[in-house]
UniProtKB/TrEMBL annotation:
<feature type="transmembrane region" description="Helical">
    <location>
        <begin position="21"/>
        <end position="40"/>
    </location>
</feature>
<feature type="transmembrane region" description="Helical">
    <location>
        <begin position="196"/>
        <end position="219"/>
    </location>
</feature>
<keyword id="KW-0812">Transmembrane</keyword>
<dbReference type="GO" id="GO:0140359">
    <property type="term" value="F:ABC-type transporter activity"/>
</dbReference>
<dbReference type="Pfam" id="PF12679">
    <property type="entry name" value="ABC2_membrane_2"/>
</dbReference>
<feature type="transmembrane region" description="Helical">
    <location>
        <begin position="288"/>
        <end position="312"/>
    </location>
</feature>
<keyword id="KW-1133">Transmembrane helix</keyword>
<feature type="transmembrane region" description="Helical">
    <location>
        <begin position="240"/>
        <end position="268"/>
    </location>
</feature>
<protein>
    <recommendedName>
        <fullName>Sodium transport system permease protein</fullName>
    </recommendedName>
</protein>
<keyword id="KW-0472">Membrane</keyword>
<feature type="transmembrane region" description="Helical">
    <location>
        <begin position="372"/>
        <end position="393"/>
    </location>
</feature>
<dbReference type="GO" id="GO:0005886">
    <property type="term" value="C:plasma membrane"/>
</dbReference>
<feature type="transmembrane region" description="Helical">
    <location>
        <begin position="319"/>
        <end position="339"/>
    </location>
</feature>
Length: 405
């Protein structure tokens, strides 16, 4: 125990007495994450405001005489140019493609006469074509606004002229006041939003922290020769392993906590700027304990994986090459949950290392994690971590491995 304590003290002192390492591990990443998401939120908000304030350029061909009255009635704002049926629209379409013009609306010739002459089923029904560019935000917004405000209103007006009482077409209403029929758990709604991003980001950040710290603490010391002197000391090699893994777990956990807090703050800034805000997540005391235990087990699993690779690598560059496939696997296991938020999952999914940690965090954010699922997740992760640690201890006892023989 004394040897483990000394190793932990040595590793923590090495990090916390190095200002550059403190800044690079704990301060700079958190600040960059918050700044990045805040800037993204501001940019998205500015973009939405710019689209809202943009005055669209609209060309209308064969417009009925009473269309202008409808446009004025609904207060549609736009630079509108009316065209005759003889005018060529090729230049207008090229302008839409180039992004210089937002919308071209073409009414069939004799549009109003065709509507007035409709008597029986099978009689001609005129068409209104809207030409726009879906890859241009201004054009898409102009088309949506024109159809929703002008064309829909005009259609209702013509129906009322034809039938006299348009309510004859309305057999029943569906949610006349939609907001009054919405039943939603605000906490769960916020959790669902975070459950798509946060588990993925937590796993990536945990592994990145373990990767950066683990390779330097083991492979880096092998290169510098400091690990060889430690191995020749009276401290048992098993104590060296547990001391290094514990200190790496502490450092990785601290950096991960800072990253997660930074991500949550950044996502709040992003959601406030782009999606109208995000309510807070509330955890029960039991859920907080569950989350902490999952994170602790994940930290030790990732630290063990990186350390195992670092032990067998001769240089940090070689260790980085070996650990990259593991990083990809962790990313893959995390990404799989981003597009499958919620839904019932069998217990077997909670026994798959890496993936089960992401799923469990996702379920926690949704308030759906059961004690059985939690137990299987923590148990399977702990077993895998212990197996890996046993391989690390075995490697530390192998002179050829530790001295790069």
């Amino acid at each position: 125990m004394i040897g483990i304590k000394n190793i932990i003290k040595k590793e923590l002192t090495r990090v916390f007495t190095d200002r550059k390492m403190i800044i690079s591990l704990f301060i700079l990443p958190g600040v960059l994450i918050m700044v990045m998401y805040s800037i993204m939120g501001r940019l998205i908000s500015n973009m939405e405001q710019d689209i809202k304030e943009h005055i669209p350029t609209v060309y209308i061909q064969n417009a009925p005489e009473d269309l202008a009255d409808v446009i004025n009635y609904v207060n549609f704002e736009g630079n509108i140019t009316y065209m005759n049926s003889s005018d060529n629209t090729n230049a207008i379409r090229d302008g839409i493609l180039a992004g210089d013009i937002d919308l071209l609306v073409v009414f069939d010739e004799g549009f109003k006469e065709t509507i007035d002459n409709y008597k029986n089923v099978g009689d001609p029904i005129p068409e209104v074509k809207t030409f726009y560019n879906p890859s241009e935000d201004y054009s898409s917004a102009a088309r949506s606004n024109f159809v929703a405000s002008v064309l829909n209103t005009y259609q209702q007006m013509l129906l009322e002229q034809r039938l006299g009482n348009i309510e004859q077409l309305q057999v029943f209403y569906i949610d006349r006041q939609p907001e009054s029929s919405v039943i939603v758990d605000e906490d769960r709604a916020s959790g669902k939003y975070l459950s798509m991003l946060l588990p993925f980001l937590i796993n990536i950040m945990l592994f990145q922290s373990a990767m950066g710290l683990g390779m330097d603490a083991i492979t880096g010391e092998k290169e510098r020769g400091t690990l060889a002197s430690m191995l020749l000391s009276p401290i048992k090699r098993r104590e060296i392993v547990f001391g290094k893994l514990t200190s790496l777990g502490i450092l990785t956990g601290l950096s991960a906590i800072i990253y997660v807090i930074s991500v949550v703050i950044g996502l709040k800034n992003l959601s406030q700027g782009a999606m109208g805000g995000m309510t807070s997540i509330k955890f029960t005391p039991v859920e907080i304990i569950q989350l902490l235990l999952i994170l602790i087990i994940l930290v030790y699993l990732y630290v063990s994986l990186v350390s195992l690779v670092a032990v067998y690598a001769r240089t940090q560059k070689e260790a980085g090459t070996y650990v990259t496939p593991l990083y990809i696997l962790v990313m893959l296991g995390s990404i799989m949950t981003m597009f499958n938020a919620g839904g019932d999952k069998g217990l077997q999914y909670f026994a798959i290392p890496v993936y089960n940690g992401t799923v469990a965090i996702q379920k926690l954010l949704l308030g759906e994690l059961t004690m059985v699922q939690f137990g299987i997740t923590v148990g399977s992760l702990a077993v895998v971590a212990l197996v890996i640690i046993s391989f690390i201890v075995k490697a530390f006892n192998d002179e050829r491995v530790m001295f790069n023989a």
